[in-house]
């Protein structure tokens, strides 16, 4: 396959208190229909989540994030027989739960896996300055 194809993605976020509306981006789900690609990756920054001050069930959040990742794989449980597009639509349907996805966005890519990594860095992982400060703090 050559050239660039349309892909869709949504940020997976954790909203510990739906009433307050505060959230932490915790992952990305990316679907590229022309390339038969569907993948979700989660990287929960637990200290960042806990800093919001709302009580949160961390084991439950970890389990929910892992469910997004599993739902995209070969062993997708109840979604296993569904086409990738149907899985993506189901996973990105609006929910008012602690773990939910944001709006669906689109783009063009020649490499969906690399695009997913790029989106994780840009939208989920702390900015480089914050990561550097965290590393310095951990060393002292």
TrEMBL record:
Q: Which InterPro entries match?
A: DUF3037
Give the Pfam families listed for this entry.
DUF3037 (PF11236)
Name of the molecule in the record: DUF3037 domain-containing protein
The species this protein was found in: Microbispora amethystogenes
């Amino acid at each position: 396959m050559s050239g660039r194809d349309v892909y869709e993605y949504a940020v997976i976020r954790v909203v510990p208190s739906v009433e307050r509306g505060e959230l932490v981006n915790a992952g990305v789900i990316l679907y590229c229909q022309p390339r038969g690609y569907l993948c979700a990756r989660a990287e929960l920054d637990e200290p960042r989540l806990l800093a919001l001050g709302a009580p949160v069930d961390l084991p439950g959040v970890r389990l929910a994030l892992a469910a997004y990742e599993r739902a995209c794989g070969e062993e997708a449980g109840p979604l296993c027989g569904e086409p990738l597009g149907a899985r993506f639509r189901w996973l990105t349907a609006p929910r008012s739960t602690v773990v939910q996805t944001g709006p669906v966005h689109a783009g063009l890519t020649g490499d969906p896996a690399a695009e997913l990594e790029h989106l994780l860095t840009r939208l989920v992982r702390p900015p480089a300055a914050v990561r550097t400060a965290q590393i310095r703090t951990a060393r002292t």
